[in-house]
What we know:
This protein is of the alpha/beta class. It contains twelve helices and ten strands. The chain has helices spanning about 10-20, 35-40, 50-60, 85-100, 120-130, 150, 175-190, 205-215, 225-230, 235-250, 260-265, 275-280; strands at about 1-5, 25-30, 45, 65-70, 105, 135-140, 155-160, 160-165, 195, 215-220. The strands form two sheets. It has a seven-stranded parallel beta sheet with strand order 3-2-1-4-5-6-9, with helices on both faces. Strands 7-8-10 form a three-stranded mixed beta sheet, covered by helices on one side. Helix 3 packs across helix 4 (about 85-100) and helix 4 (about 85-100) packs parallel to helix 5 (about 120-130). The chain is globular and about 55 Å long. The chain starts with a strand and ends with a helix.
Amino acid sequence: xxxxxxxxxxxxxxxxxxxxxxxxxxxxxxxxxxxxxxxxxxxxxxxxxxxxxxxxxxxxxxxxxxxxxxxxxxxxxxxxxxxxxxxxxxxxxxxxxxxxxxxxxxxxxxxxxxxxxxxxxxxxxxxxxxxxxxxxxxxxxxxxxxxxxxxxxxxxxxxxxxxxxxxxxxxxxxxxxxxxxxxxxxxxxxxxxxxxxxxxxxxxxxxxxxxxxxxxxxxxxxxxxxxxxxxxxxxxxxxxxxxxxxxxxxxxxxxxxxxxxxxxxxxxxxxxxxxxxxxxxx
Length: 282
């Protein structure tokens, strides 16, 4: 039995479909029954912030053998406040250990490291805790998802243009379906214990090239201007400073790394941005 957290997200919804199609026994952890019904698969209602519901989701010791650990990313918080994602995923790791889970497959972030900024640091803390838990583990460290350009998380559109501090840096965006396919391999087989995988797309594109593919204009703005807009919206100074660091790193090509990890795990080439668009941006 596999327990899938984050089942309604960009990765999770594709993973549960894949597991169902392959007749793999699994349960999706969802916050509401309505969310579970929308998935059309076996589900249990629970919440990372409710230890009793987590224990109930795992059931009797040994019932769940593997866990897909995934939840919403780092969010703006007051300076110095711990990220809720860290607290919640650490609780899930504790519950998994108590339930006798054999392996945890964690969806992390590219470059995850304790003390890093934004999601990089939050995921780094969680990875460190998981490695010290005595549970078997595998890490998936994707960078940006192609799906972010459908949800709005990959940038923002203003007056028909993709606007942000992007520079000419290239990003190896990956289709969330390919991350889900990698997760399925790690959850259902013997491969990947104690290994870190970095799923990327097969190409690294600039945001100007992405805007062209999306049929949008493109306007690159200075980091200071973008940061000022975020401060006007009331975001904490520390969070804005971390975003500026991320933008500068991206503009310098820090997210342009290409890997063969999708092919190594799934046996096929990852989808291109054009493939994702042709498929209707699922």
